Amino acid sequence: MSTPDFFRSRLDAMIDLRHPLAVLANRMPWTSIEATLTPIFEGRAREGRVSEEVDLFGVAPKLAGAGISAAGRPRLSIRLMVGLLYLKHAYNDSDEAVCERWAQDVYFQFFCGEEYFQPRLPCDPTNLVRFRQALGEAGVEELLAATIAAAVQMKAVKPVEFERVIVDTTVQEKAIAYPTDSRLLEVARARLVQLAQRAGLALKQTYEREGKRLRRRAGGYAHAKQFKRLRRVLKRQRTVLGRLLRDIERKLSGAPDERQTQLRVWLERAWRICRQRPKDKNKLYALHAPEVECIGKGKARQPYEFGVKVSLAITEKQGLIVGARAFPGNPYDGHTLAEQLEQSAILLQDLPGTPQPKIVLVDLGFRGVDAEVSSVQLIHRGKHKTLTSTQRRWLKRRQAIEPIIGHVKHDHGMRRCWLKGQTGDALHAVLCAAGYNLRWLLRAIVRLGMRLVFFILALLRWLANVTFKPALARHNRFQRADSHSPTGHALGLARYAN
Questions:
Q1: 64 touches 49 (CB < 8 A)
Q2: In whole angstroms, what is the distance from residue 414 CA to residue 169 CA?
């Protein structure tokens, strides 16, 4: 194959173009993705700053820094960054791992639009962090919509299948340690001491040695189930933290303004930890992640999970994800359905025929919301007596979403969210769904390719039957005639002898 670069071979000459990832690279709507995301990264005009300039005629105002700045290096291509996000969640890699794997894997580079092999990292892993933040929730939903459009374009799923969906909720856990009162009190004390020392505050006492000793004692008492002694230790830890907080508040005015602003945020969280009790509502479960909630889903192996509730919507027949959304505040499952169907409708609006969900299969956690989603037909087990035989057959597919939730968690990273804040929770849920859809498309490419192989084999078998079966029948007929001959001689030979 000819190439403009005489000393290097093109990637399409080095790889097997029948590989599913290579086939998908040519089927993804990259042009549409770039056209949608380009306005997000356009250079924005700045207002500038007015300054005074002294010249021979006196003082004159001057506007500096206005307009679009040409400083800085050119940005990386959108296809490269989007491809890295797809591959990261398709193969459950970290930001660092996907960049290292990209530098070694020719199929990864071909998927991201490279023409020649690049023996280097595609970007710094922190570029993926900033790219995610710039995309926002609307941007990552465009990536999920692109995978759905690719499935329709490849005819792996029919548009009519989007009219019947299955919806369920799960918990996306946050990357925090298991919250215990003793640990939270000690972490709050250590963090406040660190911030106060950075701000230049001279604390009366830091309680460092006593704090570590109390933490060890609490762990030992909890393990031995000596709860009376444990409560005594927790009371002392709260006393220590309260003394430290009051000491910092008295001396806070002596810190710089920016340090005061930072300290007030952490003081408010530390007071919440110091004053909360086991039976309180709206407790703080992580000092660095106040958005974490305690959610119980009735699992015997894990009664409580700490994170955010996430809703998933899949097609009833093929299991393609058509919606993924995070719902902070731990709402009732039924109250998430309207917003989930709204997101699914937005993701499907650009498909041929503009299909919309009309029938929704759910579990009993979605009872009592028929009025809120009157535009669709809600089917669950509680309506079993009024369902037709067809609707009961559809309801048997309701459990199909459970293994998909398991795959999204274990194979695509939804088990643990490392992104910051509520925005990070929302981005991570949608990106994990996009990663699942990418692997679904790879399996669909293999399935569609094997369909052609099976068709060819069936055609060869049919040709063999048409060609050889009549001849075999004639041969068998001659053998039967020879065996029934009265003379015991072969009729065919006797014919020629006479």
A1: yes
A2: 13
Closest Cα partner for 344 from 375, 312, 299, 368? Answer: 312
Which among 399, 401, 432, 437 is positioned nearest to 415, based on CA atoms? 432
With cut-offs at 50, 70 and 90, classify the pLDDT of residue 66: confident
Q: Please write the tens of the pLDDT for every residue from 149-178.
A: 999 999 999 999 999 999 999 999 999 999
Angle between helices 227-251 and 257-275 (to 10 degrees): 160
pLDDT for res 415: 94
Over residues 409-415, the mean pLDDT reads 95
Report d(CA 25, CA 412) in Å as an integer.
20
Contact 100, 125 (CB under 8 A): no
Structural contact between residues 33 and 78, judged by C-beta atoms closer than 8 angstroms: yes
pTM metric for this prediction: 0.85
| Sign of the CA dihedral running 461, 464, 470, 476 | negative
Nearest to 308 by CA among 430, 412, 407: 430
- Amino acid (one-letter) located at 461: R
What is the residue whose two structure tokens read 């430290």?
244
Is residue 472 classed as helix, strand or coil in its secondary structure? helix
pLDDT cut 90: percent of the chain above it: 75
Nearest CA to 24 among 149, 127, 142?
A: 149
Helix (H, G, I), strand (E, B) or coil at 50: strand
Question: Which residues on neighbouring strands pair with residue 61, listed in sequence order?
Answer: 52
pLDDT at 121: 95
- CB atoms under 10 Å from CB of 27, counted, come to 16
Cβ atoms of residues 169 and 328 within 8 Å: no
Which residues on neighbouring strands pair with residue 169, listed in sequence order?
311
At a CB cut-off of 8 Å and minimum separation 6, what does 42 contact? none
Which residue is it, tokens 């029938």? 359
> Is 143 in a helix, a strand, or coil?
helix
Residue written as token pair 């909630």: 293
How remote is the C-alpha of 323 from its chain's centroid? 11
pLDDT of 67-125, one tens digit each? 776 777 788 999 999 999 999 999 999 999 999 999 999 999 999 999 999 999 999 99
Question: Is the distance from CB of 285 to CB of 175 less than 8 angstroms?
Answer: no
Given this model, what pLDDT does residue 478 score? 61
Q: Which parts of 100-210 are beta strand (E)?
A: 164-174
